[in-house]
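S.,

Sequence below, as promised.
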Amino acid sequence: MEIEDKVALVSGGASGIRRAAVLALAERGAKVVVADVDEDGGRQTVEMAGAKGGSAAFRRCDVTKTEDLGSAFDWAVEHLGSFDIAINNAGISGEDLFADEPGHWRRIIDIDLTAVIDATRLAVRKMRVAGNAGVIINTASLIGLWPMASAPVYAAAKAGVVNFSRSLAYLAEESNIRVNAICPEIVDTPMALGLGEESLEELRTAGEILRPEDIASGVVELIEDDSRFGAVMKVTILGGREYARM
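The prediction came back faster than expected:
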């Protein structure tokens, strides 16, 4: 799919990987809706896109609320004329103290998995109504491809995103909608601050941490490559961009 003149919605677009995706799409001529609960960060992303000559607008959206997601998709169609691309990026991490803090692990599932399913469902409905080609990219994680003892719930949520996205490969033939997943290794974003600034700086110095722009490049590739549907792209320090064999 050509990105120029397409309408895209990026959830969690106020920072990190999500912001880089917004800027990459805007630079290529897309009209982008930045959907996030972080109003300051979201509006800053919009300003950054404008400074690069792109077009972006902010809509406050809590991805755990179906009505917020639906409103954001509706706004894109009503104000920008169509809806072509959904990047479901919103996510959280943190310690998986599921045995001691049930509220936190449930929130990881709610944001990292349930919200992705809900956003994909709503995006597919909008794209089917429009009757045009669509692309949906769901952000998972390399951790979604194998176990992680220190973050079992996060790993489960991201594994769910991977297999959910793969299972929707049939939509490419049925409705001309391509659904893919992207699985980054550790990325230099606010979510990585849990490692501690000293550890982060060591990773940066050693070149052992990805930049948000590395993931945004993968997002662009998945949008533009019409042969990819139900695909799982891994983005790693050593391997770069490659597709997982499942």
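The chain has a mean pLDDT of 90.

Coffee later?
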